Amino acid sequence: xxxxxxxxxxxxxxxxxxxxxxxxxxxxxxxxxxxxxxxxxxxxxxxxxxxxxxxxxxxxxxxxxxxxxxxxxxxxxxxxxxxxxxxxxxxxxxxxxxxxxxxxxxxxxxxxxxxxxxxxxxxxxxxxxxxxxxxxxxxxxxxxxxxxxxxxxxxxxxxxxxxxxxxxxxxxxxxxxxxxxxxxxxxxxxxxxxxxx
Amino acid sequence: xxxxxxxxxxxxxxxxxxxxxxxxxxxxxxxxxxxxxxxxxxxxxxxxxxxxxxxxxxxxxxxxxxxxxxxxxxxxxxxxxxxxxxxxxxxxxxxxxxxxxxxxxxxxxxxxxxxxxxxxxxxxxxxxxxxxxxxxxxxxxxxxxxxxxxxxxxxxxxxxxxxxxxxxxxxxxxxxxxxxxxxxxxxxxxx
Lengths: 197, 191
Hints:
Helix content of chain A is 28%, strand content 26%. By secondary structure, chain A is α+β, with helices and mostly antiparallel strands. Chain A folds into two domains: 1-30; 34-195, Immunoglobulin-like (Sandwich), CATH 2.60.40. In chain A, the strands form two sheets. A five-stranded antiparallel β-sheet of chain A has the order 1-2-8-4-5. In chain A, strands 3-6-7 form a three-stranded mixed β-sheet. Chain B has two domains: 1-30; 33-189, Sandwich (Jelly Rolls). By secondary structure, chain B is an alpha+beta fold. At the A-B interface, helix 1, helix 2, strand 4, strand 5 and strand 8 of A face helix 1, helix 2, strand 5 and strand 9 of B.
């Protein structure tokens, strides 16, 4: 009897390990997560406008219906990416998520201190290369370092009034997720080949 | 034989405990990092790289995209200020002030987290269109029947959820959420 009790106890411990494994691995195997859902809207590497959140046509759960959205799934395997977008005067924000859907970076129009988006996303290694060979053309860009190679960026743009939807959608539709990234300024001692797109 | 039975028991216990507890935890509201003020609850860590594994798993399961700390903070309410579950068949008044934010929106969802189609074509109010009292406070009526003033229509008799999203607020972004004043959710009546 005592022996069976020990096996039950071992089972509980093993159950704890299974619990931890499920929680940690679930984001990698989920099939309804944000990354997968956003894949429905078009190919990676470009912004896709999400339909406005209205009853019955919500592109993702719990999105604010007062915002217009555009999302881009990106990969940093081929080098840093540059996001450029002209934005309306009103509130907007952009957030960068990793493949698992966790936020790694976010900013809004006020903290960006500019009216448009010019954001360069790089991995720590690419960031080190950018620091060694600064690119003058990126002086005005916001360059961020994220610990991810794949992820997605989501732009939110406030729509105060239904009449402004068209303008917000036009601007979001023109958002560029793979804007030109100039190579390092001459003379680069070692051409950082993987900084070119 | 005895050994085999014992191993089978151990494996069964492990599977039931492991999967059962994981499902139980993920079906409930998030456990960690909740900040409750009045009827409202926010999870400020959800939009930061420090989100705990349970939050990550929950987000992956639902497909939600949280507000980043640099964007804002979302407070949700499933119960009124007296602690009773919010139900669509009842009428409520959301009244008072919001914490400082450049912009806020108040949205109502049904039990499944969907917006509700209604003839008034309204699923949310934002801070610039809401009608205010002289002291700057506001009252939004949440009910199935049309109300004068700010009316947020509900079409389900079942559970509803209110979400107040504060955009560009000093509350997001790591600083401690102190004694902020949130709007009260008062029950006006139930059939």
